[in-house]
Structures are given as C-alpha cells and as structure tokens.
TrEMBL record:
It comes from the Bacteria. This is Restriction endonuclease type IV Mrr domain-containing protein. GO terms for molecular function: DNA binding; endonuclease activity. Residues 188-259 form the Restriction endonuclease type IV Mrr domain. One of its GO terms (biological process) is DNA restriction-modification system. InterPro entries: Restrct_endonuc_IV_Mrr (IPR007560).
Length: 305
C-alpha cells in the first residue's frame, strides 16, 4: 500500500462501552447508532431535516442536535480518502470506509471498509497504545461517537512510518553516540573493559558470584540471575575471532555448570547475530546500545579521559 494522505481523520467509538468492537474489527466493518434517524433523509443529504428531528429528540437543545447531526453526517459521507480510527485491546486500529450505509434490523447503521481494520503501520509496525503520544490518545475521552482527530498529522506519520524531523535528528545523534562509545571502549585496558562488562550485567539484574578476571581458565565472570537462579558465565575479549568464539563455545557445551554463556567483545570481524544455542553474543553494536541504555556512557568517558 502506498503512503496514506487522508483528507480527514476521525475517531469512532464502536458501540456503547465498545459493545460492537470485536464484531467490527473481525468483520472489517463500521457500526453506528442514532437508530431514530430516518435513513432516507441521510441518503438525500437533508441534514437540516435531520437536525430538526434531533432538536425535538433533545428537548429543544439546538447545540446538542447540531453535534448529533455532524456525527451522523460524518458516518454517512466520509469516503475512502479518509481514515477512521478506534482503540481496542491496547492497540490503535485504523480503516478506510467504503460503500453505502446499510440499515440493520435493530436500526443501527453499518459501513464496509477498504481492506478491513489494521493495527499496524504500512511497514508492519504494531500500533500499540504504549508507544503513542498522549496528544493522540486523549481523543478517547470524547463523549460522543465520532469526532475529528486533532493529532492528525502525527497519526498519519505513524501509519506511514515517517518520523518527525526531531525524531530523525535524535536517531542520527544516537547512532553517532554509539559509534563514539565503541571507540571509547577500545581505549580501555582489558581490566577496565572487564569491569565495564561487570557493571553492565549488574545493572540488568545479574549478580556476580565469581571474581572478575581469570577465576577459571575459560571464565572471566560468573553470574546468577536471582529471580530464576539461572547461572551463566561471561567470556570477555577485547579482540575476538571466529576461532576464539568456537573454542569457548565448545568448552561451554562440555560443561553442565552453566545454563548460558555470554561472549563479549569490542573489536573484531566476528558476526554479532550468529545463532548459537545457549550463547548470547555482545559485539560492538549491541554492546554500545547496552552501555547507552544502562547509563554507563558517562562512566566510560570519565574512565578514559
């Protein structure tokens, strides 16, 4: 699907308390109440007559009747060049309405959608609510059924996988920072590099049970995860090769003392994403990310300065 450029973006509640959510999301449809509204008036586009009807139903409250009419009109007239969104099960869902409104036996209204509802971006990224801006999420507090989405540009960017310029700048800055972190790691002595690795694991919940550095022939660091009792050992290499990794993997495989092995290095052409059962590889790229996430980049800078 090409990038979306919707003419309008609207939020819709699928039934009172979400009673129609599951059915609509699974069937790729939109459902709407306002049962008392004559369908023929809406099809003709006689919105003033619809408003007059709702003024009566709202006991003469013209402002509320106008809002009712706007929502009914939006459901009937919003086309496939627009987007409807809703929220369910921790996800944002979006769709494009198509076709004519159908009146169901209970008086509620139904519309079809183009390719159903989606809870992922065009590139397949899940649109989970925990990763969405509060500016968008606040639309859930709307007391009616259909309204315009104020954070329209933000939403369209999320669906199209287009980061804000500020986000792109932050990503570029982080990438440069990680490259600098790797360069700083290469300035450490092997003792300080092992200490850094020890600090990394301690910040992630692992507890050291053996001394740092040459406690055994093949072990630089012995660890235990207190929450599970899992035991692991870490082999730290400044400059790693495929041959050195193979040697330690073989020794790990012959030992029953540890459930996992970590192999950590900052220099060398060893592929970081090689899959080895029970072994986690932490090379320059992953190592730099861990240092950044754990807040140890300042420690690293001060250690080598």
């Amino acid at each position: 699907m090409s990038s979306l450029k919707p003419s309008a973006v609207k939020f819709i509640k699928l039934g009172y308390g979400g009673e129609w959510e599951a059915q609509c999301l699974s069937s790729g449809t939109l459902r709407f109440g306002y049962h008392e509204t004559p369908d023929d008036l809406c099809v003709r586009g006689d919105w003033e007559a619809v408003r007059e009807l709702w003024i009566g139903l709202r006991n003469g409250n013209g402002g509320t009747a106008t809002r009712d009419t706007d929502q009914i009109r939006a459901f009937y007239t919003t086309g496939p060049d627009s987007v409807f969104i809703t929220f369910s099960g921790g996800y944002l869902y979006w769709c494009q309405p198509v076709g004519q409104v159908e009146v169901l036996d209970d008086g509620s209204r139904l519309r079809r959608t183009l390719c159903g509802w989606h809870n992922r971006s065009l590139a397949g990224v899940p649109l989970t609510m925990d990763r969405l801006s509060g500016h968008l999420l606040k639309v859930q507090g709307f007391r009616g059924t259909i309204c315009n989405v104020d954070a329209r540009d933000y939403l369209v960017r999320k669906i199209n996988d287009e980061p804000l310029p500020e986000v792109s700048a932050a990503i570029a800055a982080e990438a440069a920072h990680k490259l600098a972190i790797v360069d700083l790691c290469r300035l450490l002595t092997w003792q300080d590099f092992e200490l850094l690795v020890d600090l990394l694991f301690s910040t992630s919940g692992w507890r050291r049970t053996g001394a740092v550095g040459r406690t055994q022939k093949t072990v630089d660091l012995e660890l235990e995860l207190p929450t599970t009792g899992e035991k692991a050992f870490v082999q730290v290499k400044s400059d790693a090769t495929v041959a050195s990794l193979s040697e330690y993997v073989e020794q790990f495989g012959s030992s029953a003392a540890y459930a996992r092995m970590f192999f950590v290095w900052h220099t060398g052409a060893l592929p970081e994403h090689t899959a080895i059962e029970g072994v986690t590889l932490l090379g320059p790229t992953r190592l730099a990310q861990l240092i950044l996430d754990s807040g140890l980049s300042r420690w690293l800078r001060e250690k080598v300065s």
